[in-house]
Amino acid sequence: MQHPPLEPFAAGFVERPDGARVYWETSGNPRGRPALYLHGGPGGGLGAGGYRRRFDPDLHLIVGIDQRGCGRSEPWAADDLSSLRHQTMDDLLADIEAVRTHLGVDRWLLHGVSWGSTLALAYALEHPDRVTEIVNLAVTTGARWEIDWITDGIAPVFPEAHARLRAPLRDDERTIEGYARLLTDDSAAVRRRAGDDWDAWEVAHVSLGPLAKPGPLHAEPRHRLNFATLATHYWANDCFLPGTASIMSRAPELEGIPGVLVHGRRDISGPSLIPWRLHRAWPGSRLEIVEEDGHGGPRSAQIAQDAMDDFARSAR
Question: Known catalysed reaction(s) (predicted)?
Answer without folding.
Answer: Release of N-terminal proline from a peptide
